[in-house]
Amino acid sequence: MSTSTTSAPPPGTQDPPPKARHGPARPATARRGWRRALRRDWQLYSLAVLPLLFFLVFRYLPMIGNVIAFRRFEPGGSILGEQWVGLRYVRMFLTDPTFWQVFRNTLWLGGLTLVFCFPIPIVLALLLNEVRRRSLKRFVQSVSYLPHFLSVVIVAGITMQMLATDGPVNHALDWFGHDPVRFIQEPGWFRTIYVGSEIWQTAGWGTILYLAALTTIDEDLYEAARIDGASRWRQIWHVTLPGIRPTMITLLILNIGTFLAVGFEKVLLLYNPLTYPTADVVSTYLYRAGVESNSFSYAAAIGLFEAVIGLVLVTGANQLSRRTVGTSLW
């Protein structure tokens, strides 16, 4: 009786394990999956073509022009400047007292706008959420949304007419025995006028995102809070506000990123040489230096400095938000 034995294959001739054999094929599989999804949903992906082209043409390509911040630009010459001058224009605005004055004004207006215009839509959304009569709620929403659809020119015109020396506000002051106040010509009043008009124009529209976020909160949380004996204020504090916190943090980071980009159009329409000490901001200073004085390289250097500060602010706010509350943009 014989027995058969199977000898082991020589070393190095064994088949590789399945994982090692199929590992390198994963990128190809991922590419095939992406191509399959593109062929299946190409109509949806095509909708992103125009927005991407818009950002490419009007947001990214113009960044090439920042090179004139380091080159001497002359109208009629090369679009990228004639001669390399290095940090000359950067040193010019860093040693310019006028620039630091408008920079302080920008910080003041940006800070006041952030402090007052950011929380008011949240408060208004919470108040509208408590209104039970749908007709009253819709009326308040319509009235508060309306100023957003007015152009900045109309808002500035209404503001100037209301606060003119012979306007309704001064007529009311005269009725109470107060002398007329030159609101538009007084530097001390400009910040109040600007922030007040900004609140009136943006507060109602800003509530839309918060009202949408309020609809995503689970009603069972409110029911559990009522069972535990929580008052309406406690429900808002412990249920409503945590529910809309991601939306609040996202909008706060975006607002901080545009901290220095104070509304150019409204400031340009409301200010005048008498209010320059408090009304002149970086954007209007750039307009006068670049467009009116033809100092395009100098204006580009200031604009690049403003953009770098905005990038630092939004990045820092994002990191701080991620570490403190666990919510961030990226």
General description of the model:
This protein starts with 17 loop residues before the first helix and ends in a 6-residue tail after the last helix. The chain contains 18 helices and 2 strands. It has helices at 18-22, 26-40, 42-46, 49-60, 88-94, 97-117, 119-130, 134-145, 152-162, 168-175, 187-214, 219-227, 232-243, 245-257, 264-270, 276-279, 282-292, 296-324; strands at 71-72, 83-84. The protein is mainly α and 330 residues long. The model is unreliable at 1-9 and 18-23 (pLDDT under 50). 67% of the residues lie in helices and 1% in strands. Strands 1-2 form a two-stranded antiparallel sheet. Helix 9 (152-162) packs parallel to helix 15. The radius of gyration is 30 Å and the shape is globular.
Which secondary-structure class do the elements indicate? mainly alpha
Helix content estimate: 55-70%
Strand content is under 5%
Strand order of the largest sheet: 1-2
Largest sheet: 2 strands, antiparallel
Give the total of beta strands: 2
N-to-C CA distance: 75 Å
Provide keyphrases for this structure.
two-stranded antiparallel ribbon; 1% strand; 330 residues; disordered N terminus; single chain; 67% helix; mainly alpha; 18 helices
Summarize it:
The chain is mainly α and 330 residues long. The protein has helices at residues 18-22, 26-40, 42-46, 49-60, 88-94, 97-117, 119-130, 134-145, 152-162, 168-175, 187-214, 219-227, 232-243, 245-257, 264-270, 276-279, 282-292, 296-324; strands at 71-72, 83-84.
